[in-house]
Amino acid sequence: MSLLQLDNITKSFGAIHALSGISLSIRPGEAVGLMGDNGAGKSTLMRIIAGNFHPTSGTIRIDGKEKQFSKPIDARRSGIEIVYQDLALCDNLTAAANVFLGRELKKKIGPIRYLDHRAMYEKSAELFRELKSETRPRDLVRQMSGGQRQAVAIARTRLSDPKLVLMDEPTAAISVRQVAEVLALIHRLKATGHAVVLVSHRMPDVFDVCDRVIVLRRGTMVADRPIAETSPEEVTGLITGAIERA
What we know:
Elements lengths: L3 E10 L2 E11 L4 E5 L6 H8 L7 E6 L2 E3 L4 H6 L2 E4 L11 H5 L6 E4 L2 E4 L1 H14 L15 H13 L5 E5 L7 H16 L3 E5 L3 H7 L2 E6 L2 E7 L5 H9 L6
Parallel strand pairs: 3-10, 3-11, 6-9, 9-10
Antiparallel strand pairs: 1-2, 1-4, 4-5, 7-8, 11-12
Helix pairs in contact: 5-6
């Protein structure tokens, strides 16, 4: 059974048709690359899956059950987490504080409630070990590399043990070494049964970690291909329109 299934998803903003008839499915433990030129509809589709946008028409199914997301917390409750391109981290806070931001652990003594920093440090350290990241819970985010920042953002998604992690351009504007760290994190997510949707303009990254690639052009899906049955040249042609459909 598919973890996520989209059937004939459309999205319009007034007279602008951002998405038209998008149907796809994603299985547990699978990584799917979502590619397309600027304005192809990738971000709109991601935001529909994450609960930021409501589709104009079409259905979303999680584990075979139809869902309607009116806000991001609805998607999170269904096992979907998203890592935005800007990561939405607070530079002046520690890694642990960012992991638990908005979901802080607390202790209670009588009428007094206070933050349980020790428990948050321990859980964060456990998540970083699972991801095989060198990030330390007490390190300030502003002192971290791009790869370490991605580890913090991914660890934050792991708090709810999601079924599906959406990643928006995670390797943009970071060094080659940091790209390798992020791709290793995606491999580990797959190995632990998590599905991943990777939005990226970087062809080598998609071909490294993904099992399939989906290409959008002008709001329509022009390809859904196993990585083993396509090539960077074909995907480039699909993105630019040199190849109409695959």
